[in-house]
Design brief:
With 243 residues, the chain is mainly β. It has one domain: Exo-inulinase, domain 1 (Jelly Rolls, Sandwich), CATH 2.60.120. Helices cover 12% and strands 33% of the residues. The protein is built from 3 helices and 13 strands. It has helices at residues 2-18, 41-45, 198-205, and strands at 49-50, 60-62, 72-75, 78-81, 88-94, 97-105, 110-117, 129-134, 170-177, 180-185, 188-194, 221-225, 232-241. The strands form 2 sheets. Strands 1, 3, 4, 6, 9, 10, 11 and 13 form an 8-stranded antiparallel beta sheet that branches. The longest helix has 17 residues, at 2-18. It is globular, with a radius of gyration of 20 Å. It starts with a helix and ends with a strand.
């Protein structure tokens, strides 16, 4: 019996080693091992900086304005859209970077994270690409693979099953390096694409962004957070420049 059990164990070990390994990457810097809205020594050494200090709205302003409206406040250490506030952007601009950010949307809510935004247009979404922030389970857009959480909104679909429901925190990451862009959510790569590629141009031409020639063309710009009419909170907003 012992020999049979040893043989069986060996077979199980071999079979298990043949399974494809799909380990998610290490969590972004906003993990629970570090206090909220702070940087660890290793993060500082790696070039990370905070875009939100956890106590004030310093470093942020409304799109197209020099100040931030009272619809965006700090609540429980989070930069929160509590009332009609309009889209907001970082004061600083970024070219190639990695952004780590936690978000929590109210049940049924909708928001978004923009990158390389400029202010030539009346609306931020006519020039800046959006990573969708959504409660997939309770918002109608959650049934659309091009508009669910983690997508490059209306352009590149995201896989299902990686977003937490409304009222719970999600950890997102954006990697923007030259024309290469990656969207990550809760440790999983959701979307990967190349700005200006034939595939990108084809998708833009078939979307509502076609009439806007600057869409996705900025080589640097602001980080933006969308007011879509729902309560949404952001925290642990960290960024580091890439070479």
């Amino acid at each position: 019996m012992r020999n049979h059990l040893s043989t069986l164990a060996a077979v199980v070990l071999v079979l298990s080693s043949c399974k494809p390994q799909s380990q998610p990457p290490q969590p972004p810097p906003s993990s629970t091992t570090t206090a909220q809205n702070t940087l660890s020594e290793s993060e500082r050494a790696a070039g990370w900086r905070l875009l939100f200090d956890g106590t004030t709205t310093a470093g942020w302003r409304n799109y197209g304005k020099q100040t931030i409206s009272d619809g965006w406040t700090v609540q429980d250490g989070s930069l929160t859209r509590t009332g009609a506030g309009g889209d907001i952007i970082s004061n600083d601009e970024f070219k190639n970077f990695e952004l780590s950010i936690d978000w929590k949307i109210e049940p049924g809510g909708n928001s978004g994270i923009f990158y390389r935004a400029s202010e030539e247009k009346d609306e931020i979404y006519w020039n800046a690409v959006e990573m969708q922030v959504l409660d997939d389970a309770k918002h109608p857009d959650g049934q659309n693979p091009l508009q669910s959480a983690g997508t490059a909104y209306d352009l590149y679909p995201a896989p299902r099953g990686h977003v937490k429901p409304g009222g719970e925190w999600n950890s997102a990451r954006l990697v923007v390096n030259g024309n290469h862009v990656e969207h990550w959510l809760n440790g999983f790569k959701m979307v990967e694409y190349e700005l200006g590629s034939a595939d990108w141009n084809s998708k833009v031409a078939g979307s509502k962004f076609k009439p806007h020639p600057k869409f996705g063309k900025n080589t640097q710009g602001h980080i933006g957070l969308q007011d879509h009419g729902n309560v949404v909170a952001y925290r642990n907003i960290k960024i580091r420049a890439l070479p």
